[in-house]
Known about the structure:
The protein is of the alpha/beta class. The chain has helices at residues 68-75, 98-108, 124-134, 141-150, 166-178, 196-213, 224-227, 250-280, and strands at 24-35, 42-53, 57-61, 83-88, 91-92, 109-113, 184-188, 217-220, 232-237, 240-246. Helix 3 (124-134) runs parallel beside helix 5 (166-178), helix 4 (141-150) packs across helix 5 and helix 5 packs parallel to helix 6 (196-213).
Amino acid sequence: MRLRSGRRQKADDRPEAPAATPGLAVELRGVRRRYGRGAGSVHALAGVDLALPRGTFTGVMGPSGSGKSTFLQCAAGLDRPSAGSVRLGGTEITGMSENELTELRRSRLGFVFQAFNLLPSLTVEQNVLLPMRLAGQRQDRRRASAVLDRVGLAGTARRRPGELSGGQQQRVAIARALVTSPDVIFADEPTGALDTGTAAEVLGLLRHAVDHLGATVVMVTHDPAAAAWADRVLFLADGAFADGIDGGTADQIAARMSALTAHTTHTARTAGAGAMAGAAA
Length: 281
């Protein structure tokens, strides 16, 4: 295999990743993820290219099986791509060891999940400070107090998650994601377990983190109303980004999503019919 001019080769015979682009928080180049081998292998990601500037809020949507979860896992260093390059905050993470990836996730990334993922035995303050504790950093109680105040939970530091509502627990999760001033916050269906009003409050906090704290948020969601809080919404289909919309309303996003789903369904049916006809012949 010929290498492009100017690309040196590593000791393991893999070409070095291309240089990072300044000002980008998330950068994926040619990212593929294949599960299994041979004829039964599944291509969850089929060559994803993405460049997200710092201080932006990006929503990711797509039909079931489009690769949303795999994209998030590969972009956040929770899973390794089969090919391609992933950079977070300018740092190439694709070749990192498991220990290096763990350290990066603890110190430079924030996560907000649908299920909150708070430890019930810890206080609110201890949950917020957990990333610092796991990273071996000094646990700054004043920092915890400041982020709790920022998400509207002043005075709750000594309470436990079980004493809070679902919306309040998600606010604690956002405070935990913010406490290390991460390069990127990855949110996976952060409003999936919340009612409409509480969901809007949580999304407002993520929006505020981008607009006023300079955070970068990447959110996977199935909800057009949630996606409408983002600066840009990208649509995945068959493991690749197929469309995008900037500053769209919930109705516009829902219409684009419906069109993409219909197209994907039609393509799948056509391919299935073709395969059956070939088998019959």
